Write the structure tokens for this entry.
Amino acid sequence: MDESAMPALRYFSSYSGRGLPLRLVAELPPEAIAHRNTCLRAAYDEAGRPICIEKLVYGAVEMRHDYRWAADGTLAGVTVSEEGEAPRELVLG
């Protein structure tokens, strides 16, 4: 994620549930990131919906979700990228 082009980033220690979008839990202050081996980094749109979530492991992106939202506010699709694999497109709704 190009941090200079994204809205304010937020950091989390984990996520819960099985559905999409991922539900991030236990928000971390940015200064706590330097002391963690893993965390999740997220950017949100103006409506508060996640547009990108990355799992960081030792500072490298291991997994990434790029979310697309429909005009009615429902999740329209997601691109899932995992280290060493080709990105997968999931079309929803």
Summary: The mean pLDDT is 91.
